[in-house]
Amino acid sequence: MTAKQIEEAAIKLPKRERLTEKLRESLETKKDREILDAWIKEAERRNDEMESGKVVGIPAEVVFKRLRASVRSAR
User: Fold this and answer.
1) pLDDT per position as a tens digit, 11-24
2) Spans of all domains in the chain
């Protein structure tokens, strides 16, 4: 069976029987998982700080305005 035939057969499977998650996981290394877990932990930490009021966010418009000004001044 060719890769193309396997792909076509897989696409025809009902969603609950598709193997995309298993295939993705088979390509993922232990290091990839550790990195992903670390980013999830960091995102949760930042979210907790925002929700508790410990950190006040900066509106995206302000961030982009500052970034544009910074880029212009660097030229």
Assistant:
1) 888 877 767 777 77
2) 3-74
